[in-house]
């Protein structure tokens, strides 16, 4: 396996003279990236975590009182917190596999030789290259129950009898947004996997062809292992990204109808940016980060095990 | 599978047609957006978008009176700057992660992930204060630095997974031949993981191209990216559909063209048989 | 390269600062008009006031207040800004606003403002911070042709309104599916105006008291029944924002809706004489409609407060105010400017003026912003989708204002 091999022992190192350089070099190479991220993200993160232990409402800037874990207790007793957590779980569990599957198929197709391949490769990334707010507004219009093209299309083909208010019905709103996000995100997987596919030597396929392996078997035994490292990383990164992305939801429904499309980052956003309650918003953000970290650590453990 | 000579009809059935279907799904909304951007705005809601009486007025307005040209320029500077900063920092870091074993490696790698897990919106206020103290508000540098921090962790992880795909024996062989570490990195590893670098570069470019929250808070009058400019078209009582869609169409072009230009590179590199050669 | 750029920029800024030690007014605004009409006003002001530079920044509306609060807390607030009443309690509490009472007293333009506007925009602490710059009043838009076709009168009471909405909700093309709805209700953020017109006019009902009374609950129940029982709103109502309600009305999908003069010209463009306007109906013994305000204010952190004041006074002066409103599509606050107002067809100006006697602002309370932005939309949507009852919604709102 190509990736996630954090614990793999090093192969025999070069002899002594270079030993010191060897020990210092990795840190030297890492320090710019580490320092920048520490200063720009880590410090504000610690500050925010600190805020979560206080009563801090932005329009009362002088009222910054220590309340310990009060905000956390309030969050755990908050119905909306649990609703949002549930939606976040559904949101991740559906969006990522959908994006991955569509991205994988697309990458496999884009790896085949065909005359307009270059053009297809470029066009495929368009959804990914569009600003989220434009995407969200566009899809709101597509889903519109009065003049939206989705309803018109389905009506014309007789799939539904009456226009469905996709975003206004609590039972369809989350699904509709997930479709939008799948559309927006699958090109990421397509590009990443396409790049990963290049590292599989052609000779493997040649050998397999000679042995008479079917296309499916070639896919299973050559392609999939060859790109599994990239896929694992891509899924991991996308997991974090999708979990955190709420801008599309915010523009499409604002979390509504009711709480039907609330996710945790959205809830934190609403609390902090709209209600200006930074104490509570930070507490939600911290809890969310802890949950996400749990998922990520679990995922990493699993994929490490799978890799060995 | 990529090798067997496939007959044309079969290729059309198994490759061209599915590809067309995916492209239809991909481009449908985009084309509809285009249609909206050239439609007459007065009848947009009564008759829907149509090519009847189509005009490119919205595009002209966008550049002449709205000043979208300078917004595009700002976005371009910020995105390319982020790609430069992000790639150079993450390639070196990824090389260290991929080729060395050292104390704290696991923690450091996880640290990079953790950074991207925290909801950005809550970091805005401390960051705003930080950049004000540094005097960087409303500069390209502020956005480049902020976007880099978002991009670097992901880029490092991505680069590590591509670099791990390149056998260590190659750069070790180069060093035995007298190359230094850096030379080995530059002459052997970099060319080989070019597809990965390009994919990562595209990723960084698109991420910073579409970034809104930082651009809004840390930017301002002098530095205004297209995402912020597009937002100003969504008013309190009116959405300027024509301009908004024209902005979306135009805004997606640079990344698409960029990808069109570099996509061939995605293929070269490893496939030439260098790895196994 | 970037650092060189910053260096160059700061040297330039320094040089500019040394060349003429004048003041700069950083002004934030939000406009629905994309063509930068502010530039002309700024140029004119600068020509009339040598030594003052105005840096006007168009901030996206949906992030406007987030951004403003962030800038104030972060210590980099603008010198003057466009502001609404709902934000005043918070801004006052933050100490972010500069009282302009003394300046107003000396200003000869003050007498030319529409009556009562300064009283309406006075803060709870008795100070004047806001200088009105434009306003709108919400009223009922209706399809005159549909009313005529069905022989309906313009609804005067809630009961008439319900009957009319029921009659107007119909299947016009005979496919068995409803394709015109009686009323386009705005269930998403900003729709509290619709709900308020049908609820807060009732006797003894207000946001801060009487909301949980029988009359108050009856108002919310009335809205819920219109949607859930009578089905006179489009099914998408819970999630509809202004572009959906205006779009549906223009497209002929709804026969009535509530909005203000800002959308009048667009409606006439789409529907011509078929669209007409009237004050909102009387519900439960009284009428209530929203006064949509917009003012400018000087921020307490402004370096040159006199220059900032000069600029905002300029915008609310005769002639300039008309031009400002031609750009925004709202109504001027200067009497002389509204006298000769021809931007909107007369019938819409009349409906606005007729609605003024019962036009209200939301309470001057720190809770108002949360009511508008989160509590009302979520609770209303939950009532419309049947997740909670009308009593529960009113109780939730009452609790918010009690805090």
First and last CA, distance of chain B: 21 Å
The overall strand count of chain B is 0
Oligomeric assembly: heterotrimer
Q: How would you describe the shape of chain B?
A: globular
H and E order of chain A: HEEHHHHHHHHHHHH
Distance between the termini of chain A: 8 Å
Please identify the top-level CATH class of chain A: Mainly Alpha
Structural class of chain B: mainly alpha
Taking all Cα atoms into account, the compactness measure Rg of chain A is 24 Å
Content of β-strand of chain B: under 5%
Please list the strands of the largest sheet of chain A in the order they lie side by side: 1-2
Count of separate DSSP helical elements of chain A: 13
**CATH topology descriptor of chain B:** MetI-like fold
State the CATH architecture of chain B.
Orthogonal Bundle
CATH class of chain B, anyone? Mainly Alpha
Largest sheet of chain A: 2 strands, antiparallel
- CATH homologous superfamily grouping of chain A: MetI-like
| Low-pLDDT regions of chain A | 1-16
Largest sheet of chain B: none
Signal peptide (chain C): 1-21
Organism (chain C): Mangrovicoccus algicola
Pfam family, one (chain C): SBP_bac_1
Family (chain C): Belongs to the bacterial solute-binding protein 1 family.
Would you write up a description of this structure?
The complex is a heterotrimer of chains A (308), B (277) and C (403). Chain A is 71% helix and 2% strand. Chain A has 308 residues and is an all-alpha fold. A two-stranded antiparallel ribbon of chain A has the order 1-2. The longest helix of chain A is centred in the first third of the chain and has 33 residues. In chain A, 52% of the residues are buried. By secondary structure, chain B is mainly α. Chain B has a single domain, classed as MetI-like (MetI-like fold, Orthogonal Bundle). Chain C has 403 residues and is α/β, with parallel strands linked by helices. Chain C folds into 2 domains: 175 residues, D-Maltodextrin-Binding Protein, domain 2 (3-Layer(aba) Sandwich); 194 residues, Periplasmic binding protein-like II (D-Maltodextrin-Binding Protein, domain 2), CATH 3.40.190.10. Chain C contains 18 helices and 11 strands. In chain C, strands 1, 2, 3, 4, 9, 10 and 11 form a 7-stranded mixed β-sheet that branches. In chain C, strands 6-7-5-8 form a 4-stranded mixed β-sheet. The radius of gyration of chain C is 23 Å and the shape is globular. At the A-C interface, helix 12 of A face helix 3, helix 4, helix 11 and helix 17 of C. Chain C: It comes from Mangrovicoccus algicola. Chain C: Its main location: periplasm.
